[in-house]
Amino acid sequence: MFFNFIKRTIDITACVSEDFAFAEKFYPIVPSSKFIPDWWKNTPKSKFNFEEFRIVRTVRSCPGIMGTFKNGYIQPLWSDLAFKHEDENYWRYQFADNLSEIDIHSSEQFVNFYKNYNFYKVNSPWLIRSSENIKFLMVDPFYLFDKPKPYIIPYGFLDGKVISSNFFFFVEKNLGVKEFLLKSGIPTIQIIPITEKTINFKTEVVSNREFKLLSNTYKVRKFSNVGIETRKILSNLKKKI
User: Fold this and answer.
1) I need a surface site. Which of 27, 40, 53, 126 has the fewest CB within 10 A?
2) Are 114 and 105 in contact (CB under 8 A)?
3) What is the mean pLDDT of residues 207-211?
C-alpha cells in the first residue's frame, strides 16, 4: 500500500517572460519526437534481401539514434541570428528580435582546452522549472542535421528546480572569416530530464516580474559550479544558525 502514495509523475514547465512571448507562440520547446529530420525519413528501412538472402540494415534500425528522437525536448532558435567571426578579437552578431544576447568567454576561463577556439554563450530566454530537484542533460541535437555545423556545441549537466537553457558554441579561431545566418526554428540544444517518472511538460508565458523572481528564487544553475558552491555556503549558514 505504501507505494501507492509515491508520486509517479513530475511536472516540468518551460517559461519565458512577456518580452519573449513570441518564442512561446512561434518556437516553443517541444518533445524531441516533433523534430524528426528529413534525412532520417528519406533513409530506407532495414529489410530482407531475397536475392542475396540476407538482411540489409540501415541506420533506421539503430536503437541509439531512435532513442535520441524519443527522449527529451528540443529548444528551437527563437530568432534569426547573424554571426560573423573574423579572428580571436573581432566578432559581431545580431538577433532579429533585438533583445537576445551572446557573451564571449575569454580563453583564460578555458586554460588548456580547445586552445584554437573562441567560446560564445547564447543567453536563452527560457527557464526550465521542475516540481522536483532533478538533473538535466543538455546536448547538441547532432542527429537533427544532415551535415556538419560551422560551430561546436558542447554538452553539460545542470541540476535544480529551475535551470537556464543557455548554451555554448565554439568557433575555430584560425580559419579566416566565418559568417553564418541561423534561421529561427532550427534546433539549438536537446534538454533531457534524468528521471524514470512520467513527465507532464508544458510551456508558458509569465510576467517579467515573475520571471525575474523565478530566476532569483532558485539561484539558477548554469554550466559552472557557482550554483553548487552557493548551495554549500547557504547550507553551512543554516547549520550555524
Assistant:
1) 53
2) no
3) 94
Confidence of residue 117 (pLDDT cuts 50, 70, 90): confident
Across 188-200, b (16+ Cβ under 10 Å) vs e yields: bbbbbbeeeeebe
User: Would the pTM of this model clear 0.85, i.e. be above it?
Assistant: no
Grid cell in block for residue 97:
528580435
With vertex at residue 210, the alpha carbon angle to CA 96 and CA 205, rounded to the nearest 5 degrees, is 50
- How far is C-alpha 128 from the chain's CA centre? 10
Q: Is residue 89 part of a domain?
A: yes
- What is d(CA 138, CA 135) in angstroms, rounded to the nearest whole number? 10
Q: Which of 203, 163, 162 minimizes the C-alpha distance to 22?
A: 203
Query: Which pLDDT belongs to residue 110?
Result: 77
Tell me if 137 is assigned to some domain: yes
Instruction: Report pLDDT for 231.
Output: 52
Rounded CA separation 132/159 (Å): 10
177 contacts: CB under 8 Å, gap ≥ 6: 84, 85, 86
Tell me which residue range forms the domain holding 87: 9-36+72-231
**Burial of 207 from C-beta contacts in 10 A (0-12 / 13-18 / 19+):** exposed
Domain assignment present for 210: yes
Q: How many domains does the chain divide into?
A: 1
